[in-house]
Amino acid sequence: MNITIVGAGNMGLAMAGYFSVNTEHNIILFTNKDIYRCEKLVLHEIEEKKCTEIKGIHTTNSIKEAFQSTDIVFCTYPAFLRKKFIEQIEDIISPTAMLGFIPGYGGAEFCCKKMRERGVTIFGLQRVPYVARVNETNDEIIAGILSKKKKLYAAAIPYNKTQEISNIIEGLLDIPCEALKEYLAITLAPSNPLLHISGLYNVFRNYKEGDVFKEQLSFYEEWNDFTSELLFEYDAELQEICNKLEPLDLKEVVPLSIYYESPTPQDMTLKLKSIEPFKAVMVPLKEVEDGFVPDFTSRMFVEDFPFGVCVIKDFARIVGVKTPVIDMLLRFYEEKTNHRYFNNDGSYTTEIKETGAPGLYGINTIEDIIKFYH
Fold first, then answer.
1. pTM strictly above 0.90
2. Which residues of 170-204 are buried (b: 16+ CB within 10 A; e: fewer)?
């Protein structure tokens, strides 16, 4: 196959490297970065203690070269870059191609109407396949992979392509991949938009302009039982939304208490603090003259609020579920950044167009949701 990876960040370079080392497919990396500026590219599979030189990746910033003859695309761009990317390729991408988002939350599928009409299959993964970290020395770039998932979950639009794409992903990533019953189990997956937002609220809820942190903080070291209790309440609102979306079967939107095998907030705190890859996650801060202040331009803010919380909130609007916790978190975001997406009555503000809300694409009833996904 001709495989195109979009983005040469941590996940993109790791996936491109893994496919190059472990398959015989043609790998194109769509990026403006010069990944060959160093003498050597290395794939480091950390848990297997295996290092392999990466060869055979072709890099390009040409849309025609990357997408006109591709068979499958893995887009690793953050959610806030995906709409523009989709507009750039929608007339160029091969109509027989499969375009996937890693991970799949954020509402990118709503932007793909034109490509779907041309025959392109859209797919997503519920979570990333592993933790990826890129390190660069003077003479080599190392794409590191650790904490491989034991199982992946995928879905496609149209739905009858889900099993096919799951089989392809399993073969490429060497991780069992299960076909989900509903693509919405990806869109509403309780992942970063719940974990990151709960943690941000814990650290910054009392922050005032002019306050300074003395040192860089570790995200999950700051996690406490208060944060876990908030997370449980937030997750409960998400589960209520899923329950209202009948006749769709959303049992595969697994509550975090089950996913992390943590039935109480106290258990959740201990669990999240014990996950080794999580220890590398830092609170989004930037250094100033006398310490550190919040970095409101970090991905945790500019991705997980407009393309996480807002998507969930809009589904709540559609099914008529009250969301006091989500509303509180959106008010917190407004106080810190001056960005407001919903009025007090739940109606949109003019800034809603900067989000992944399904209502922007004419999805305003449960019938609309079913028609879109099926």
1. yes
2. bebbeeebbbbebbbbbbbbbbbbbbbbbbbbbbb
Q: What is the pLDDT of residue 325?
A: 98
State which amino acid sits at residue 349: T
Look up residue 27 and give its amino acid.
Answer: I
Instruction: Give me the amino acid identity at 147.
Output: S
* Alpha carbons 143 and 42: distance in angstroms, whole number: 6
Angle between helices 225-244 and 192-204 (to 10 degrees): 140
- pLDDT under 70: residue ranges of the chain: none
Number of H helices, E strands in the chain: 14, 14
| Number of neighbouring beta carbons within 10 Å of residue 247 | 6
Half-sphere exposure of 149 (CA within 13 A, CB side): 20
CA separation (Å) from 56 to 3, 19, 24, 230, 305?
12, 10, 10, 47, 38
Residue in 48, 63, 13 with CA at minimum distance from that of residue 33: 13
Write down the residue that tokens 């109509």 correspond to: 95
pLDDT in tens, 143-196: 999 999 999 999 999 999 999 999 999 999 999 999 999 999 999 999 999 999
User: One-letter amino acid identity for 61?
Assistant: N
Task: Report how far apart, in Å, the C-alpha atoms of 256 and of each of 239, 253, 360 are.
Answer: 10, 9, 28
Beta carbons of 6 and 73 less than 8 angstroms apart: yes
Q: Residue 195 is encoded by which pair of tokens?
A: 């974990």
Question: First and final CA of the chain: distance in angstroms?
Answer: 28
Encoded tokens for 144: 């590191």
Helix (H, G, I), strand (E, B) or coil at 274: helix
Among 361, 372, 352, residue whose Cα is nearest residue 307: 352
Rounded distance, CA 86 to CA 137, Å? Answer: 34
Q: Could you give phi then psi for residue 289, rounded to 5 degrees? A: -60, -40
Percentage helix, strand, coil, to 5, in the chain? 45, 20, 40
Nearest to 188 by CA among 109, 260, 290: 109
